[in-house]
Write a structure and sequence with these properties.
heterodimer, A: about 300 residues, alpha+beta, 9-stranded antiparallel β-sheet, 11 helices, 9 strands, about 50% helix, B: about 180 residues, mainly alpha, elongated
Chain lengths: ~300, ~180
Amino acid sequence: MKKLTELIEEYYRNPSMESLEKERQNLLFYLKITVFILIAVFLLLTASIQMNENVFFLIFSVEISIFGLIYSLLTSGYRKKFKNKVVNSLVSVFSGDFEYIPTGKISPVKYDLSGLFLQHYDRYGGEDYVRGVMDGVKFEFSDIHTEYRTTDSKGKTHWQTVFKGTFFVSEFNKKFKGRVLVYPDYSEKFLGSLANSFQKFYSHNLEFVKMDSPEFEKEFVVYSNDQILARYVLSTALMEKIMKFKKAIKKPIYFSFKNNMMFVAISGNNNFEAPVFRSLNDYGFAEEMIGGFYYISTLIKTLSIERNIWN
Amino acid sequence: MGVWIGIGVFVLILIIMYNSLISKKNQVENIFASIDTLLKKRRNLIPNLVESVKAYMKHEKNVLEDITSLRSKADTISDETEKMDIENKISSLMGKILINVENYPELKANENVMHLQMTLAEIEEQISAARRAYNQAVTDYNNAIEMIPANMLAKMMGYKRKNVFEITKSERENINVGNLFKQ
């Protein structure tokens, strides 16, 4: 298994980088021309027809939609190539036990099984699926986007996001019956210990569990059907390791422990997207993209969830 | 009319406080019962462990004898503090036995001993989790009986402060079973 710095070096060594960067620059040129034309059309229209607020808004939204369409048409080939040539080689170089499927996704059954997001969804999408084995533990993850439909008073349909981010599933090294859910805690930072009183009410039909690590308790809120089970799963060492992971990933994280499995949802994370407005050679981009993948892939190691040796 | 509403609200608050105190006390007792069950489960492994290692551990004969007598003593004692004291001694002797297993290659290769080590490590983790749950339940209970206005009701009900378990540093560390088998 490679180190993070070695992976970044590997990224810059990729033979497709030069041609992809050229393609990106061409794309950017076409996009600039598109913006120029759209602005010109907009100015022309505003000068030639009588303007009121509604017409202005209509033209503006049509132009935004046209730009969105052209953007996605122009960049889709480039983004695909980036995934097939650069990401694919990065994943296989990282470990021979890993497999990358750009259009694959975690099965909705596993997403449902986690019990993390109780909001019903009407649309389930995903991409950038990675599966592999680390220290004898099987895992898989992909980007997931779940949405539900709402209709406003005018009968217009809107899509609301339930979860958008990376969803990770692996085996867990402890056998248990029951479930433990860990959510990011937003209220405790502002309300202090008073937040616990509210958290008891919003408990997913489970018991609120107050953990004995003040640092962990400040960042997360825990629910379980069994007070002892929650502490058995979340040992003091595991809580410390989760904190370490949270500091590395810097995004809201959700955990679910159920059916001897661990589910981790990292909200707002989007793996392996090729940059359009930033250079492919930008070190900040490379570090961010590869770092995200690296920290998620090594989660088993970070949390020490090695397979039980007697199994 | 207003007076009756006032009395009604007061009675309602009393009922809520009373029920909350009862549920906190029961939570402490439930978790304590779970710890007791786990400790019993651990004690039941002692004869098997002693039997498996005694043929090899000639130098640790005293330790094996001590742990056997402590086990039978723990079964008969009802005083909680004394019982916990014995359990702590059992913990430390068990640790000694398991560490000594490392010095006997025949034992390390023995499947039965390996299985016992694994089961013990598992139970130790469960005990540690139960103790942490117990401490939280006791803290909630102690807070409830000392805070105004529930403290007055708690006093009338005869509720007294309970002690939390001292959790040692070794217990705080996650038990890594893998390390037990490292060469």
